[in-house]
């Protein structure tokens, strides 16, 4: 099975993993810290490593850009649009769905890693980056969601290799594509769908999208367009409203209940969301 992964944790064999925008930049460094016989030397080495990381971060090229839109997209989620009309080089550097960057807001030093929700064509055509931002108390994201049109933020360079769509090409050979996403993980999935990966030429492309309830489910206004492009949408609610008639529980459980018949040799899988979801989904779909 060919799989594309966009997850905060390393994935098992037979999947393609890359760093997530959800990971703090120090996570990799901590794993690379060497062990020493002397505790004192170990602590000193750790402090030096942290200091070196700070120096590297200070060398990041930051591009100031104004916000053109900040509006609610769902409960606790906001759509944030950054105007890049004065930064065409940065806009042009977004070439693949699944890429991400760092964003800083005034008077708050710690940057936030954000997946770019808009397709690359939007950056090159309209000169904007769009993000789906979850407001978390005390974070850069919370401050960002409280800003207004015209406020200036700073963007780092576009990072990551994006989704390796070539692994599920040509569509005739990978006729089935299963997409699993939860919460704000739908953000890079939007970029993937709207970038186009020949969904209409495949026999079955299905997105299982999990959220707590309908109020927490973003991009509902885009579902019809996504379906018209060849992507079937299966909303899954973990705490549904009383009148909800659709799927409930976890996305991987909803997929299991569907008892979908597919050929592993001609199936691709896209994952974006919580670690437990990605692991459980892989257990189900990877023979």
TrEMBL record:
The name this protein goes by in its record: FAD-binding FR-type domain-containing protein
A Pfam family reported for this protein in Swiss-Prot or TrEMBL: NAD_binding_1
Example GO molecular function: oxidoreductase activity
FAD-binding FR-type domain span: 60-165
């Amino acid at each position: 099975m060919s799989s594309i992964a966009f997850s905060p944790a390393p994935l098992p064999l037979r999947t393609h993993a890359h760093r997530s925008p959800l990971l703090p930049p120090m996570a990799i460094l901590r794993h690379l810290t060497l062990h020493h016989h002397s505790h004192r030397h170990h602590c000193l080495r750790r402090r030096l490593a942290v200091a070196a990381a700070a120096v590297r971060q200070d060398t990041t090229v930051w591009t100031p850009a104004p916000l053109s839109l900040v509006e609610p997209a769902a409960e606790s989620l906001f759509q944030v649009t950054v105007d890049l009309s004065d930064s065409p080089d940065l806009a042009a550097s977004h070439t693949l769905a699944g890429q991400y960057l760092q964003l800083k807001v005034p008077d708050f030093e710690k940057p936030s890693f954000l997946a770019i929700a808009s397709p690359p064509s939007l950056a090159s055509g309209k000169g904007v980056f769009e993000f789906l931002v979850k407001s978390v108390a005390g974070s850069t994201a919370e401050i960002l969601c409280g800003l207004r049109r015209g406020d200036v933020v700073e963007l780092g360079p576009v990072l990551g290799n994006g989704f390796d769509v070539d692994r599920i090409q040509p569509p005739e050979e990978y006729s089935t594509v299963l997409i699993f996403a939860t919460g704000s993980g739908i953000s890079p999935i939007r970029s993937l769908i709207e970038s186009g990966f020949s969904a209409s030429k495949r026999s079955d492309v299905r997105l299982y999208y999990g959220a707590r309830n309908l109020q927490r489910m973003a991009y509902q206004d885009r579902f019809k367009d996504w379906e018209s492009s060849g992507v079937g949408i299966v909303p899954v609610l973990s705490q549904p409203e009383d009148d909800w008639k659709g799927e409930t529980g976890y996305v991987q459980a909803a997929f299991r209940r569907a008892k979908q018949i597919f050929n592993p040799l001609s199936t691709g899988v896209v994952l974006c969301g919580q670690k437990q979801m990605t692991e459980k989904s892989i257990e189900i779909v990877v023979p």
